[in-house]
Amino acid sequence: MWFLREEGARWAMYGSAECISAAFSILKGPELCRFVEPASGAARIRHVSFNPANAHLMSLLPESSSGLPSDPAPTRHYSRPLAGLFALVFGWLGLHRWYLGARGAWLYPMLSMPLMGWALRTDPWFRQPGFFAFSLIVVIALVEAIVISLTRDARWDARLNANSGRVSANRWAPVFIAIASLIGAAMLGMSVMAIALEGWFNARLGR
Length: 207
Hints:
With 207 residues, this protein is mainly α. The protein has 8 helices and 4 strands. It has a two-stranded antiparallel ribbon with strand order 1-2. It has a two-stranded antiparallel sheet with strand order 3-4.
């Protein structure tokens, strides 16, 4: 199913069950084409009529053997378990965001690597502010791993795999990744808080 939409100096294709001429006043005269969706979900042509004034628009679109716009080429399919695993193991490097093409992927290595390097320059490294800040980035990545893993397949495909031509059917792998991420975030968070409280008490006691 397709309709045309003007975007600046070019035309783009969008799916719709509406008549083209009803949606955009620039298409004058009889409708270019009208589609309906049967219960099976397959698109069928109910009525086709061409206006000579709109004939040039069809030449802007790739055409199938029937002379109508063809389906878009399949795009990359993003795996939810793989994205969750990247966030669990290499989340501090932002690998899950690189994989998904999400914004802010470059922030993770730019912040985490200098912070960990700063912490490792002193002893003990796990009592340094750099390690605490690094741990916060790791916890954020683990929370993202949980969110990714617990996202429903239908919602995941609607957001990232709409044109991949494949349907996600994940079972227990994302659940195990979410459990591991939750345990890791809880253990790291409690460890950092324990170390920070110990340092604070020692400072108060003048040790």
